[in-house]
Amino acid sequence: MTAPHKDDFGNPVGQPIDNWSGCEFPPRSDMVGNHVIVSPLDVARDAQQLFEANKTAGDGSRFTYLPTNAFDDFAAYKAWLDGMTANADPILHAIIDKATNRAVGVAAFMRIDAANGVVEVGNINYAPALSKTIGGTEAMYLMMKRAFDE
Hints:
alpha+beta
């Protein structure tokens, strides 16, 4: 076993990568699984379905760790989605249940630093129809596969 590479302070860090030149932003294309399609969010296509799916959650507690509260008003939710999808980062995705062809969740590639090969998956919000399902797990797998392998 080789000794770990250390920084100037003696802290163990990863091995240097020769000829690193950064990477590209994640592509804005569908990720298709057996149970879900993770698709770049299209406000016109997805907003109403997501709003309705989130209304089934009841008390809004699913929004506790998100940058906004639950929405009681569709126009406000749509305006928020319009703002979230207006920039290159985050790249918001709708998670579409293949069995129903309805959007039931959201997740984003965010805080993208292509020069250093960094991307975060966040802004995750699963409606009850997606929570604790194979499709919910598969959505995260598809996003990780894209982040690491594509």
